[in-house]
DNA sequence: ACAAATTTAGAACAATTGTTCTAAATTTGT
DNA sequence: ACAAATTTAGAACAATTGTTCTAAATTTGT
């Protein structure tokens, strides 16, 4: 692992632990035992560090979405796979989810990338639901518009569960994965057959 | 309106416009034409300004929840009233919703207040749903646990719709209230009779 | 009307921040 | 082995920040 990768890995760790408000590049450099000058030799601006981390998250999503190419699995199995895969990313890149609006305002490239990602995922999910509706595993009488709105709602729940959990759940010691799984299941419940 | 109220009103305006990352107390003072020293005479710490604004939001919720004491209205009417009332607050105190995790980590008093508020709203909503289930306007075969999970899901959608809209909707010129209304309706849809 | 309390502006402070610059140390390619 | 390229540490810079201090201005109560 070279210095650049070490910076990313340490920054991710510290941002997840402390949030982005109070963390400085100097602190990141100090905690990993290099000079601030050296850190800024590898990443000229703080934004570059965060953007780099965001790209890792995006790559993670890309990889996860490609996984279930093997059709034929039951909808339940597919859903559980998505839930598991999403959770791993939400947990790993927690600070991005928890500070998403601020990060998007601060680094517009990230907002643009996210919009593209959502549009892409939206299409994939809608066509997937329609496929499983034909197979009798998903309610089929739902108009396309309603299906799209359901997907939008799903994104809100999935992308901001982490924010809600940070404020409500973490202190109460609720198991995060189990809480996420149930939250997503609750959203799907009325649509499954 | 005395200086203290002017500071609150100006701070709210500026935070909603620019977010909390880049806004300074000096900027707030300058934009409203008073000295930074004067601002800090009224609010010793920046946190005090934000906490004060949060308390206004809380008071707004309190007021909204008390409104529909007149039972007997149809569930649809009640729901529309809640949607309207919630939206006004979400819009007015936008920056709090959009930076909620960060604000809660920064000012723990706010997190604690929010947790109490959620618990209170949770109980009220569950008993309300059960009341309307008896009246035949809400699905009645749902176990209590599932009802509670549905309410949790509802809070995520309602409290973080604003964050999602900030990143996805605002640029596309979608009407915010209409978008919020449909999002909440989509969540309720499968539970209505 | 006038003493006391409150409010205000502006200077000052102390700490911090992201980033750049420079020179030394280290690594790489041949 | 040695020149060139890369990496590193640490000083330095310039700007900013929240907050405090002081003295003047204004308001309030009697």
Briefly note the structural class of the backbone of chain A: mainly alpha
Write down the secondary-structure element order of chain A.
Answer: HHHHHHHHHH
Q: Mean of residue pLDDT of chain A? A: 93
User: Which stretches of chain A are low in confidence, meaning pLDDT under 50 for 5 or more residues running?
Assistant: none
Distance between the termini of chain A: 48 Å
Approximate strand percentage of chain A: under 5%
- Percent helix range of chain A: over 70%
Largest sheet of chain A: none
**Oligomeric state as shown:** homodimer
- Which descriptor suits the 3D outline of chain A? elongated
Q: Provide the gyration radius of chain A in Å.
A: 19 Å
SS elements, strand count of chain A: 0
Number of helices of chain A: 10
What is the largest interface, and how many residues per chain? A-B, 39 and 39 residues
């Amino acid at each position: 692992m070279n210095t650049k990768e070490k910076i990313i890995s340490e920054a991710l760790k510290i941002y997840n632990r402390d949030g982005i408000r109070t963390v400085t590049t100097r602190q990141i450099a100090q905690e990993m035992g290099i000079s601030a000058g050296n850190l800024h030799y590898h990443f000229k601006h703080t934004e570059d560090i965060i953007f780099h981390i965001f790209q890792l998250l995006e790559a993670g999503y890309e990889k996860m979405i490609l996984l279930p190419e093997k059709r034929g699995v039951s909808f339940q199995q597919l859903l559980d796979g998505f839930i598991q895969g999403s959770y791993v990313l939400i947990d790993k890149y927690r600070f991005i989810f928890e500070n998403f609006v601020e990060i998007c305002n601060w680094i517009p490239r990230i907002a643009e990338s996210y919009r593209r990602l959502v549009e892409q995922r939206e299409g994939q999910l809608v066509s997937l639901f329609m496929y499983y509706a034909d197979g009798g595993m998903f309610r089929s009488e739902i108009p396309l518009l309603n299906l799209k709105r359901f997907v939008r709602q799903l994104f809100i729940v999935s992308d901001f569960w982490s924010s809600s959990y940070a404020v409500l759940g973490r202190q109460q010691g609720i198991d995060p994965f189990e809480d996420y799984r149930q939250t997503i299941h609750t959203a799907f419940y009325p649509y499954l057959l």
